[in-house]
Amino acid sequence: MRNILTHVSQFYSLALWERVRVRDLIWITLFFLIGFSPISFGSDQDDSANKQKLFEKVFDGAVQLDSQMVQKVLQGKKDERHYADADGDGQPEEVWFIDNDSRHPERYRPLLVRAIDEDGDLLTSHEPDIDSDLYVADWKADGSVDAVLDYNDKDGDGDADEMAMYFYGGSSGYFNEPVLRVWWGRDVGDDNLLWHDIGYTYDQTLCQYRTHFGGDEMFAAFALPLSGQEWIPFFENPFLFYDRDGDGVTEEVLRLSGVDDNVESIRWSFDADNDAARDQPRDFDVSITAWAPGVSWINQGRQRGQTDLRFDERFAERHTLRGIPTAPFLRYESAPAFARPIVWERAMLTWDEDDRNVDEQQYADANERWEGVIANGNEDFPQVGGPSCGAFNKRYELAMKPNGPLRYYYHPADGRLHLRGADKSWIDVDMNFDRRTDMRYEMIDEDGDGVIDQWSIDVNADGTPEDVWRSDPSLIQEVDWNRADVNAATSFARRRNQWREPLVHYLIKLLQTTNEEAAGTMLSLLNQWGRIESFSQDEIDKFIASPETQSYRYGVKADRLIAELKKYYKNEDFWQRFDRARSQGDLEAMLQCVMEKTGVDDYAKPEQTKISTGAVAWAQDWVPPNIGWESEKIAYRVYWGQFDFFGKKNDCLIYPTIGAMSYHDETEWGIDALLVGESAGCGGATLYINGKAWPVRNPAGKGEIVFTKRLLSQDETHITIEHLAEGAGPKDNPYTIRFHCFANAGRKDSPIDITIEGGKEGDEIALGIGLTKMPQEALLFDSSAGVMGVWGAQTPVIGTIGMGIVFPKNRFLRIQTTPDENQAVLQAERGKTLRYHIQCDWLRGRRFDRCPSAGDWLNELRALAAEVKLR
After folding, report:
1. Do the beta carbons of residue 272 and residue 484 sit within 8 Å?
2. Predicted model pTM
3. What are residue 15's phi and psi, to 5 degrees?
4. Rounded CA gap, 355 and 547, in Å?
5. What is the pLDDT of residues 127-163, one digit of tens each?
6. 423, 642, 857, 870: which could form a disulfide with 802 (CB 3.0–4.6 Å)?
7. Rg (alpha carbons) of the chain, rounded to whole number
8. Percent of the chain's residues with pLDDT above 90
C-alpha cells in the first residue's frame, strides 16, 4: 500500500493531468489503486530493484553509484566538489557533491549529485554546466538513484536545446509492469528558457511559476516499460507553446492528451488581446476544450487515454531519448493543422471575462495560469486537466454533439467571439468574489441556426430572468480559430469600452429621475460589488488597469441598471429606440438615447487610479562605510570605491531594514551576490594618467584616498547618491573623482555619472571601468554596441551571476585585464561628465533560471545599450 500512495503522490506533484479539483481526488486515487497497480502490490525491495533496473536500462553505469565515492562526498566539507578523472588525462569527466541550494526542500536532503560531463568542457574547480551534462540525483544520499536530469545541446552552440527529467513511475496498469517516466522539453525558439527543478525533478506546486512554458516551446511525457523497447507517449502528447509575433511571449498554447497514438482531448488557448509581456508572460483569455470520439467516459469499457481518434505519420514526429526511440507523437509544426478539421465528440468554449485566469480554488494565488484557460467541468462536460479557472465570471459555450469541424463567429450585439452551434451558453456573475452567483446570463440560439439571438438575464440568480433582449443575427462575422483572427475580433470588442462607463453613469441618472428609491438601492448594490476584500492592492490595481475587466464589469452594471429601469420607466418610444441599438451592439446610440432623456451632460471620466510602477530606497552605514541604492529589482552598494550588488528573489526593497545582518548565505530575499576582493567590483573605476593605472579604491579600507558619501535626491521612483573620492592618482597632482549613482524604479540597471576634477593640466586621462574576474567566467564584449560583460560563478553558494557595463562606444579605447578584473578603458576629460550603466543579475533569483547562457546575457546588455543610447 505504501507503494500505491507513493505513486499517487507522484501523480499529484508531477501533474500527469496537471492539477485536479478536490472532488476528483477520490476518483483518481481509486483509478491508481485499480488501474495503475497490480493486484499483488509487491514489496518495497521489489520496487527498489525495478526502479534500479529501469534507470540502468536507460543510463547504464551512470546510475550505479560507487559506495566509496558516496561516503567520501558525505564526509567532505560543505559545498566541496569531488572530481573524477577516470582516464587520467588531467581533465575530469564528472563531479560529485551535496547540493545545498535552497531550492531543494528538506525531504530531499542530503541531496547527493553525480554530474557527468558529456561534452568535454568540465574543468577541475569549475561547476558543471547545463548544456550537455547529465545530473544523477540521490535523495537522502542513501546510495540509490531517484531522479536523472539530462540537458542536451543539439546544435553545438553551447546552450541547452532540450532537457529531460527522468523518474520512476511505479507499476502501471496501462502497461501491466513497472515504468520509467520522463518529462521531455524542447526549446523550439532557442531562447534558452526551460524547466525549473527541485531535487532534479519537477514538482507542480514549487516549479510551475519558475518554469518558462513560453515563447516557442514544447514538452511531452513518455513512459518506458521494464520490458519495452520504446518510449510511449503518455497523456501530454504533446503540450505546445507558440510565439506568433516573435516577442518572446506565448500567444497560443495547444495541449493534446492521450496515450500512444490516441488523442483523447485537446485544449487550445489564445492570448486574444495580446497583452502578455515578458515581465507578465501569461495572460490567456479564451480556450476551446474538446473530447475525442470514443472517450472512456462515453465508452465505459475503455481505459483513460484510449479513443477512436488517432494521428498518422503525416503529423507525427519520432525522437530518441538516451538511445531509445519514442513512439510517434504530434509534431510541433503540424499539430494545429491536425486538430483544426477534427469532428469532436463534445466541445466547450471558455472565455475569461474578468481577465483573471487563475486557480479558482486558490484565490490567494493570483498567478495567471500557464496551461491556457482550463474550463471548469460540469455534468455535461468532464473537466480536462486542472486547476480550472472556475465557475464564475467565465463565459461557457457548450456544443453537445458537433456535426462538423468547430466554427466561430464575432457577434457585434455583445461584442464577443462565440462558438457556432453551441447548445448551452452562460455566464455566472460573481462581482464581489464571494463564490456566489450575483447574476446569470444565458445566451440562446432560439431559431437553431447555430448563432445566438437571445440574451436572458437573471439579475438576482433566482432562476427567473428579469430581462430578455434579442439581437440582429445578420451582423455576425465568421472568425477562424487562429491567433490573427481571434486577436482582430477582440480588437473590435475593445473599441466599445469608451461607451460603457458613461452609459452606466447616465442609466443611474435616468433611474434617479424615475424612482429615487430604486436608484438608491442600485447605487448601494453597485458599491457593494466594488468591495473586493479578498484582493490585495496589486490585484485591485490590475483590475483597474485591465480593459477586459472594466469592459466586463461595466457591462454587468449596465445590464443590471437596464433591468431595473425597465420596471419603472415606461416610455415605449425610448425602449424601441434603445432595444434597436442594443440588438446591433451600438453602445454609442444606447448612450445617446439615455442622455437625451436625462437632459444633462455632466459625465466626467474618473481620474485613473495611479498604478504602482516600482519603488526605490537607499541606506548607509548599516556596515560602515556602505552606501546603497536600489530599485525593487536589484540593490547596489559602494564602499571605498568598490561596487557590489545584492541579487533578489522577488521584487522587494531591502535597504529600509537590512541592518548588519549576514547576507553571505542566501536569505529570504536573496544574497550578496559578488565577492569583490581587491577588485573594482561591478563598475568601480581605475584612473589612467598618461597611461599609468591608479585604482580609485581602498580595498578593505587600506589606502590614501578619502571617500565621502551622501544622498543627493530622492522621490518615489528615483534615488541619486554621491560617492566622492578625493586624493586619487599621483600625490603631487591629486584628482577628485565624483560618482553619481542612480536607482530607477522598475529597472535592474543603474546609470552612473562620473566626473574627474583636479590633477595636472595636459595629463592624458582615461577611465577603466572594471568587473571582478571570476574563477569560472565568460568575458563578453561588443565594441560596436558599447558593452562589456561577464557571465560565470565564484562559489557554489552564490552560483551563476552576470555583470555588465554599457558605455559610450565612441569613448572606447581598449579592454584591459588585470589579475583581479576586466576593464573597459574609456577616453575621459577633466570636468566633463561621463555616463555609463552597470547591470547585474543573480541567476538563482530569476523567475526563469533554466538555462540562460552567456550569449543571452550579452544580448541583454546589447538591448540595454540600444535603449539608453549613450554618447
Report:
1. no
2. 0.93
3. 60, 60
4. 9
5. 999 999 999 999 999 999 999 999 999 999 999 999 9
6. 857
7. 31
8. 86
